[in-house]
């Protein structure tokens, strides 16, 4: 890394503060900037965490471990968050969990996820717009590398099942693998959200799905 580039980064951090690069509620302890990747060591700013089982707040730290997650790119560079996750003791007498790891919320960083919520949202929209392989190739160019299989998994996981009666729907083709495998995407036109992905684009499959919705 050149001296001029390092000085530029130092000026940027003094002006904007490295904390602004992190997710809401996190602080940046260290930033490592490479040629095509930025590593950010982050941790939660709050001193306590809430037990996911009983809801009791705890400040007693039992241990810590590191977790890596991809985030939105910065200046044409991939971003990897090295998150320090704390384990806490739960002091509630009747709680079945004595030790728990702090949670960050699905919109920020879901449990076991290797992508932040905001990055997964972008990946989801790319998958809906372009399909599997084309979306994966475009995401690679945007410095958000993701396999086409992972991309399709994100689309399927984030597809909402209808909770209320559907009044207006839109049906169109969806490319699981362009030129080889196609399905059908059904959207709720009132809420402007995808409802389901059908495994093929046969008329009989769509009719069977509609009949099932009408019965329920």
From TrEMBL:
Coiled-coil stretches: none
Domain Transposase IS204/IS1001/IS1096/IS1165 DDE residue range list: 169-212
TM region(s), chain numbering: none
Ranges where the Transposase IS204/IS1001/IS1096/IS1165 zinc-finger domain occurs: 49-92
Entries under InterPro entries matching the protein: Transpos_ISL3 (IPR047951), Transposase_DDE (IPR002560), Transposase_Znf (IPR029261)
The organism's place on the tree of life at top rank: Bacteria
Protein name according to UniProt: Transposase family protein
Organism: Mesorhizobium newzealandense
